[in-house]
């Protein structure tokens, strides 16, 4: 790796509100391991910007938690705690970019755990001067029926045996890197959607003629938990699908309503196909496969209801925020 290249890591702390510190610390210690590895290869000590949704006064408490849970991280990197009061997911990422002047900005989430070689995998493609964005490989961790089912129907590819889906994976806001000059001038756009801004950023890259480099920089994401989250996330997935359709195609209301039905059919068929063909890759017993299919179809039926209700104007388009009943479920 070229020694003159510098990088910073932006770690958003919104998702850390929904999992325990025992899990967060696994990711922090993995991040420290990855930074140490590339530092041994010649890269300068980076800055890790912890962008959080609290107040500036929360920085000291967060620093104490980091020192207790992942003491090595503060040794291999300079830690900066950047408050963005009440910031949503993409607000925190944009906020973190403001605190670095490094050549490359790496994004990772507080509930993601990098695998060995992850950081090198994200940084190496930037040896090519034309590289603007590198997209890593995120998959859902799974160890029971519910998490295996989520892994099959989620928008991340499986860890193994999912090459077709992995080859065309979308931009992962929780596992990617940009040249700072580009992402600083093209921040994730503000939007009411829950996970819409990364799609808009991906299309902005394409419009400018930039190729997104997909690399095997692997990290796993903790599986969503609880039926309350399942219900809420399905409805949000549908509403976000309508928002993306509006942003990218500017359709009329009738087209949006029609799209909600066609997407319901497409995603239901995709779910059945993936569950039947790929369930063995997750270690799911054969007798659970029909139940996983039912859960998957239920998810995208709820998504259809969310999609249709927004497309038809039955609900208002308001900023998506994880409600308390989900956080504490």
Automatic annotation (TrEMBL):
The keyword Iron-sulfur does not apply. The chain crosses the membrane at residues 287-306. The keyword S-adenosyl-L-methionine does not apply. Keywords: Membrane, Transferase, Transmembrane, Transmembrane helix. Residues 94-150 form the Glycosyltransferase 2-like domain. It holds the Pfam family Glycos_transf_2. One of its GO terms (molecular function) is transferase activity. InterPro entries: Glyco_trans_2-like, Nucleotide-diphossugar_trans. This is Family 2 glycosyl transferase. It comes from Mesorhizobium plurifarium.
């Amino acid at each position: 790796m070229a020694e003159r290249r510098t990088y910073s890591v932006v770690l958003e702390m919104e998702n850390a509100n929904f999992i325990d510190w025992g899990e967060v610390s696994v990711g922090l210690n993995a991040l420290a391991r990855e930074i140490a590895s590339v530092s041994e290869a010649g890269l300068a000590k980076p800055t890790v910007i912890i962008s959080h949704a609290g107040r500036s006064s929360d920085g000291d408490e967060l620093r104490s938690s980091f020192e207790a849970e992942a003491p090595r991280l503060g040794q291999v990197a300079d830690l900066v705690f950047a408050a963005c009061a009440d910031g949503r997911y993409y607000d925190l990422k944009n906020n973190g970019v403001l605190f670095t002047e490094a050549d490359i900005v790496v994004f990772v989430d507080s509930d993601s755990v990098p695998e060995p070689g992850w950081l090198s995998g994200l940084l190496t493609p930037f040896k090519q001067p034309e590289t603007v964005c590198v997209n890593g490989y995120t998959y859902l961790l799974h160890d029971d029926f519910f998490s295996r089912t989520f892994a099959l129907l989620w928008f991340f590819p499986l860890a193994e045996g999912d090459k077709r889906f992995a080859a065309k994976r979308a931009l992962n806001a929780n596992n990617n890197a940009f040249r700072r000059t580009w992402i600083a001038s093209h921040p994730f756009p503000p939007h009411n959607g829950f996970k819409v801004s990364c799609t808009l950023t991906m299309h902005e890259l394409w419009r400018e003629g930039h190729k997104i480099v997909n690399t095997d920089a692997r990290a796993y994401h903790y599986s969503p938990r609880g039926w309350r989250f399942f219900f809420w996330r399905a409805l949000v997935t549908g509403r976000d699908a309508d928002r993306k359709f509006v942003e990218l195609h500017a359709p009329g209301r009738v087209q949006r309503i029609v799209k909600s039905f066609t997407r319901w059919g497409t995603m239901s068929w995709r779910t059945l196909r993936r569950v039947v063909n790929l369930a063995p890759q997750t270690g799911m017993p054969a007798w659970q496969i029909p139940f996983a299919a039912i859960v998957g179809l239920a998810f995208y039926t709820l998504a259809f209801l969310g999609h249709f209700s927004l497309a038809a104007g039955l609900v208002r388009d308001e900023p998506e925020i994880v409600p308390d009943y989900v956080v504490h479920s």
